[in-house]
Amino acid sequence: MNDKPLYEALSAEDTARLLREIGPERSREMLQTMMLIRAFEERAQELFSLGRVHGTMHLSIGQEASAVGANFALTNHDYLLNTHRGHGHVLAWGSEVDLMMAEFLGREAGYCRGRGGSMHIADVSRNNLGANGIVGGGIPISVGVGLSIKSRKTDQVCLSVFGDGAANEGAFHESLNMASIWDLPIIYLCENNQYAMSMAVSHAFNIERISQRACAYNIVGVTIDGNDPLAVYQAVGEAKARAQAGNGPTLIEAITYRWKGHSKSDREAYRTRDEVKEWQQRDPIPHFARTLGLSQEEVAAMQAEVVSRIDAAVAFAEASPEPELSTILEGVYA
Amino acid sequence: MRELTYAEALREALRQKMVADERIFLIGEDIGVYGGAFAVTAGLFKEFGAERVIDTPISEAAIAGACIGAALTGMLPVGEIQFMDFVTLSMEQLVLQAAKIRFMFGGKATVPMVLRMPGGSGTGAAAQHSESLENWFVHVPGLKVVMPSSPYDAKGLLISAIEDENPVIFVEHKLLYRTKGHVPEEMYRVPLSQANVVREGRDLTVVATSIMVSRALEAAERLAQEGIELEIIDPRTLNPLDEKPIVESVIKTGKALVVHEAVKTGGFGGELVSRIVESEAFDYLDAPVRRLAGLDIPIPYNRNLEYHAVPQIENIVEEARKLHQGAY
Description:
By secondary structure, chain A is an alpha/beta fold. Chain A has helices at about 10-20, 25-50, 65-70, 85-95, 95-105, 140-150, 170-180, 200-205, 230-245, 275-280, 285-290, 295-320; strands at about 80, 160-165, 185-190, 195, 200, 220-225, 250-255. Chain B has about 325 residues and is an alpha/beta fold.
């Protein structure tokens, strides 16, 4: 980590104001969604080690605050373009954990009828336009969503989520430039979790903050604490207002950390255990529980509820049939 | 009979559809005031304005992505890639996004977009502005690939492509833009995945795409004077392919020649030959199925070299004659 802070943490006053704005019920819901994401992914990992999962997965454990803060600032009327490390955003968007788990286990009842898996969960009926297996693959698509919103003259916005690695793809540049010249209502959320697979941000960029790239497009760029859901909520809310006022896209860099390896094949030779432990001290979940002033009992009750939802989701998924082989050709063409 | 050029026919299709459906917009490089590098969109900017005829920076990946995102959210985009060669810069979006989204999302999303692009050589533009890359897209399930060979088909196929719910790669040919042909004024459709028997003949089946259709027709006229009658079939849509008329024709003639401009190795001709020999037509073949295609080289600049890099009328005449006479 840098000596100089990359962002300014929210002040106590801002935190209090945001909590008032969001209200106690919804802020608890934010915390519980963070817990749900954590529980979903921990269970996903467990199912994987039990050999009940066919493919790989990309866990966002440690990054839950970013997904929750961003999605709670939006509604299902808006659009989401998600990353391969996207379980958190799907859950925070309000999609069904049962259908997600069924997809994760490759079942017909899953969001993508078992054709997509962990990396491609979409819930198109709720304007979740899907997670993406290609780094930066969703960013050019955001331009079209933005154009569509502008053309249909609605007040929607598009949240385009990607990681630090995607900011070095050419598609990032082409798309942010287009979004800027046409003032498209897009919120670019770069979740900087410090590594593009094994490539450290400090080696992959010659700038301090990825958000500095915003100046190349003459758009607003901010770097925030991605482990504080309120900071993310505030930044995304401001970006939404900016977009709806016709002032175009915003680039938000949320500083966070991926606790787990890139995927199941990662032996994590590129970082130290101490570094991981240091970030684990900054676990966004207990931190936000403290911010909300919840008692241990309250948190435990919320956790129990989350675990029972995950249990039910696994039961639902495992009871769902696998896709029929006779349907293998379906869905290629409309 | 009303005649239009191929470019005018395409423009008329775009115009008529844009008048009829507000969800349609055009997006690409220099398609606005400039009217497109080959003037296909000339005048449309003036008629429909900057919001529906969108000039972009030189960003082919983002053009493709813009089409996908708009298509996913209720619009009907028609993108233009200035030269087919430049679609190499859009490949990720087309191959991994546009083509896969529907299947990958369990059939719950549609991507109704068209991406137009001119392919082909003959303009002296050399290796990076003359490619015929259609078979790259044929190899990708989820994409449809259309190649009109006449002004009539250009209009009717483009209207069908815009109305189709799938991503359609619409490959035009630079040398065809100025060719004239009959084009009715009304909005008509040439269905996708419907091959066209362009000329009937008893002796030999020629399956040709894009500009090779008119070259094959000219070759057929010359061979007719020698008493050799070619049957010419234009698949029009390369994928999904309407293979039945091709198989039926080969059953009738017993001989088949496949002609395209793209380089032979890995070209669409290989697929056509396979479809023929895998079908019941195999038992009726009197000779090997032959391919006449571009040489396995980049398109050269020099006029004479360029001319000889791809099949010309005389090559088709010669090859068809040899095949007819039992040279193989």
